[in-house]
Structure prediction request, 552 residues.
Amino acid sequence: MPSLSKVLEPIGEICPADLSATEAVKRLNASGADALLVEKEGGIVGLFGHREAIAAFADGSGPVGAYMRRPLPGRNVADSLESGADIMYREDTPVVLMTEDEGPLFRKTSRTVGIVSAQAVLTEIGKTTTDTASNKVFSGSKDLSLNVPVSPCQRACPIHQDIAAYVDYVSQGRYLDSWLVIHETNPFPSMLGRLCNHPCETDCKRGWVQGPENAVSIKSLKRFATDYAWARRVKIDWQRAPENGRRVAIVGSGPAGMTAAQDLRLMGYRVDLYEREAKLGGLLSASIPHFRFDLDQLNWEIQMIVDMGVNVLLNKSVGKDPKLEQLLNDYDAVFLSVGMMTGRILPVSGSDLPEVISAMEFLRVRSYDIVPDNFPRGGDVVVIGGGAVATDAAQTSIKTGARKVWMVSIEPADRLPAFGNELVEAREIGLQLHTGVIVNAITADGNRARDPLPVCHLRLRPDHGLCPGPGRAAHAPEADGGGYGWPHQAGQAVRRRGLRSGSLVHRRCGRLGSSDRAVDQRIPGRRGAAGRQAADRDRVHRRSPRGGLLQP
Prediction:
């Protein structure tokens, strides 16, 4: 931490202790200073500021010495900024006298060399502190849209939410303010308040030291603030820029696509949103089982974005109808956020049997409250895989009416990639694990699978179902004949018609596909999505802090 000498200021306005308070007030107002230093017999003995000036109005004829704040604390210029801030807090003073030692070691004397103000100390702390939320409070509160990570929890958050601010608002009972801060970077807090794997809590400093304190329950506080707003059915009426006449097509209505749509509408772009499914939300509404979240609450958040003027086109499979070439010709820019909605099935014999369905397809069908044709109600289901999607498929199978459900995975039981709490929930309702197994074939007959070897051959009885869930792949429709192939990377954007490279679209909209089910990584970072990149480079419109007005 730097020393107080870094923020040393020269001694300001001085007035004698016997000067009348009325004259001192005039000097204070004329100088524009925060306070006058009171001098007596060659030394600084006190401080006369605006607070003391108010007290002097009762009888301004008295001397300044009768009203001044004293004693004025002092510190050595070699002391740290922290010590200066500490004495200012304890003594309730905006100014500290700075002294400097002089003379030989055993005959040292000190002389006054200047002052240090509270504003200077806090400003310097705000510049130098990199691992505490105070930096955000001191230097970032004027423009929260910058959202520079400063605290360990904020650095750990994939979308760098302003955690310190919204947790502080909850502590003050300002729950709607907390919800607004969350919405600055996260349009779907109802989902992340339930499904986020909260790396912020792992890095929380309160959990580093052994003792009675634990890490702050950041995810639970986010859910609480969102549930509070949902219970009152409030909505945000964002302050939008004037229409600029440009049109953008967004393909995919998952977290990345919806976030880009919101930000582009804030900047005045016309947005057409193309979605292959019959409903909005992408993986949020079509892949994550509805027992993990409140579907009505998710639709409330989606509708807030749609109400900003987004034109929604459902049941549109871009690449077939309409062609990608057509979009590139009709729009100023196209943002592709196709997601990872296609399930992968093991390339083994028997994977094309009618009883076999990918976990992603099974979850998608069940999201419409439809039971697949070959699902064995009252029968047995085997789920291949050990991740979050496989766990979702297993729990959904149990809740749909399967008699027994096994989850077969290549990983050992202590290294399953599924979230631990979800795996515990699944086992509590009847899921059975068979780990350390490689499936090399699938057949359908009336015999049970009794082979205990690490490489097994699954035999399906007539009342069996199989739900492979080894992972997902990006949905990539066939490229049209115009020579514009589908981007090789999920989340890539296409530039078109007169826009500078990188001015409107960005190559990636989050780390798509980097984990089995990580919603927070699908939401573009503050400077990583189409809308935010345009705001930074084109200066079209910058979202103001708490730019929305609450509407019941």
Notes: The domain at 343-473 is CATH 3.50.50.60 (FAD/NAD(P)-binding domain). The two ends are 47 Å apart (CA to CA). The chain has a mean pLDDT of 76. The chain has four domains: 4-126, 134-232, 243-341+475-551, 343-473.
